[in-house]
Each structure stands twice: as C-alpha cells, then as structure tokens.
Amino acid sequence: MGIFWGLLFIAVDIRLESLDLILPDFVGYLLIFKGLGVLAAEHRDFRTARVLAAVMFFVSIPSLVEMKSEPLDPAFIRRQMIAALTGDLSALLPKQVHSARLLGTTRSRSAIDSNRTQNPQGDADALLGKYSDGTVVLILRYASPKEALRAFDRKMETDYSFDAIRKRAETDESFRANRMPASESRVGSDERPHSAKWSIEVADRLIQQWWNRGWSWWWPSHSGHRGNWNSNILYIVEGYKSSAGAYRSALEGERLDKGGVAFNPLSLFSTVGDILTALMVWEICSGIVALSLSSGQNDLSIIANRRGILYVGLSATGSFFSTIWFLAPDLTPGPFVGAIAGALLVYAVAGMIAFVLIMALLRRAADSL
Q1: DSSP secondary structure string for all residues of 288-344
Q2: Distance CA 284, CA 358 (A)
Q3: Cα separation, 120 vs 124, whole angstroms
Q4: Considering only CA atoms, which of 251, 366, 265, 361 is closest in space to residue 311?
Q5: Nearest 5 degrees, angle CA 51-CA 309-CA 347?
Q6: Whole-angstrom distance, CA of residue 224 vs CA of residue 188
Q7: What is the pLDDT of residues 142-172, one digit of tens each?
Q8: Do residues 176 and 264 make contact, with C-beta atoms less than 8 angstroms apart?
C-alpha cells in the first residue's frame, strides 16, 4: 500500500503560490522506497525500482518550487538555457533577425573597447556580434547585477553622451547628426531595481543599451516583470532605427500571446526525472509480472506487462517531443509550434490515465498476491 499512496503523491500536483506543499513528490518517492523494501527480497526488479525511488527522492526536491516565465519564443529559451549551462555568450545571439544574418562574433578587446568604456576585464565576459544589415550587438557580463547596473549608468554618462557621440562622428559618418534625442526608462526602487533602458538616436541609427534583473523566472510571485537567465548581463545594440525593435525582441524573447506555453527553467531537469520515474514504474510492473507467473496468475501478469508498456511508451514519447521542442525549435515550422505544445498536453493527460491504471494494478496485485 505504501507504493500505491506514493504514486498518488506523485500523480497529484496541488500548488500554493508555486509551492508544492500539499502531497509533495519527494514524500511519494519516500513512501515507494519504503514499500519496495518489503518486496525487495521477492525479486530483483523490485530492488532496482527501490534504487530508482531513492534517486528520485533527491531529484524531485527542486520541484517543490515551480519557476515559470511568460510564454516566450522556444528559440530564445534554448539560447538562454545553452548560455546558462555553458557560460558562452555567443549562444545568446540569434543566427538571424528578420532578413539580417549573423556574420560573425569577436572577443577582440580593441574592437570591443573602441569608443566603449566600463567593460568587463575577462575575455569570456565580452562579445561583439556583427549582422549583415550593419547592426552591432555587444553583450557584456559582469560579476553581479549591481556591477552591471553601475556600468550601465556610467556608459550613459560617458560613451553615449553628446560629447562622446560627437567625437565618434569625427571618424564614423553614420553618427553625424544635428540633434540626438535620448530616452531613459527604469522600473523599481533604487535599492532593488528591476530593469533599466537607455536609447539614443543618431542620424538614421539607434543606439540602445538595457539591463534586466530577471525577476520573472527566479521569483514566481514577481511574474509581472520580464527577465532572462542572466541578471548581470548588459546588452548594447547599435543599428538602424527600423530594425531596433526586432533585435530587442530577439534578445529579450518575443512573447507568444497565442499558442505559447509557460516555460519552467528546470524543464530538462524534470524530463530526466520523468524518465527515471518511468523506469521505476516499469521495474515495479516487471516485478509484478514475475510474482504473478510464479503464483500461476497469468491474467494479472499480462495486465501488468501491458500497462507497464503503455506507461513507459507514453512517457518516452512525451519526453522525446518536449526535448525536441526545446533543443531544436528551429526544426519546427512556426505554425506548428502551438500544435506541438497542444500535443504535449494531450500526452500529459494520457500519461495521467496510464498512472491511474498503474495504481489500479497495484491495488489488484496487493489483493491477489
């Protein structure tokens, strides 16, 4: 019965303010672990399942807190995740923004420091990308959000002041202009600012720099603020006015108001947990099959085998499509992204039905064996 109640804890997800304090998953895996302790001596499949339950006890602890972002472009999510895991800033740059292609990137200090001050000292913390329409994107990573915001303020007073732009105009024709309107936007208090933005128009070009704290992903209760994985990153874009909005959308993540799904930053971590859980359920079903055959209950062994295959098959298919949707969204045509998201929901419902069938199997096995 411990296994039955443990699966119930895993199947039911009731959250209060994104916290899974009612029927938490790790308690369910603990119950399954204890329940399998009684059956471990009966067959090696139960022993294997018990090991997997012990692993899942620790793997499921992060799921206590659900962190979600607004519905965003899957390609943007992938770039952010890769950059967060590898630390490589080049992953943040989209390969193409509308018709403009990324020509290449450089970490050359002369190119990055030219007309730009307050840059990080580490070579891995500064990257400049050039696009085919002449737009230049500079990504700077600082040691802390406070340092990034401090650099933002100083750049606003130095690099992008009227005198600094006028000096650049002496060597760069594209910066010649009679007037330079500028705008500034901030959100939040002085102690804990959420974001900051600055833009300046020079001739037919627009220079914009912005910094985001990233509240919406790390703090679920602050869902009103958009953010990103890198709360200490400063973006600077120098390009034409007509394309400025497109670059900002690409670098910040374009909202999917229709057909989008809220993304959990720990989704890949959860996918690993789903795979381990499916293997655990398979081993439990295999153990029931073995006990049923040894006791002459062939009907129960057939049912256990079929339900184990059904559950593992649904879990594997759902994990495959969710991983493809995340890692390779560019392979999926835009109009079908919403359809794939809908298919994942269907698989989730089917998986829950399969979970109920497994629980019913456990009750029958407990009564029969």
Answers
A1: HHHHHHHTT-HHHHHHHHHHHHHHHHHHHHHHHHHHHHHH-GGGS-GGGHHHHHHHH
A2: 10
A3: 9
A4: 361
A5: 100
A6: 12
A7: 988 888 888 998 998 888 888 888 888 888 7
A8: no
Rounded (10°) angle between helices 298-327 and 74-86: 90
The angle formed by the CA atoms of residues 177, 209 and 233, to the nearest 5 degrees, is 155
CATH number of 86-252: 3.40.1000
CA dihedral 350, 353, 358, 364 (to 10 degrees): -150
Burial class (CB in 10 A: 0-12, 13-18, 19+), 23: middle
**Tell me: the pLDDT tens digits for 3-57?**
888 888 887 776 665 555 667 888 888 999 998 888 888 889 999 999 999 998 8
pLDDT digits (tens, 9 = 90+) for 249-295: 888 876 555 444 445 555 666 778 888 888 999 999 999 998 888 88
Residues 190 and 196: their CA atoms lie apart, in Å, by 11
What DSSP element (H or E) covers 15?
Answer: strand 14-16
Q: Which of these, 325, 322, 350, lies nearest to 337 by C-alpha position?
A: 325
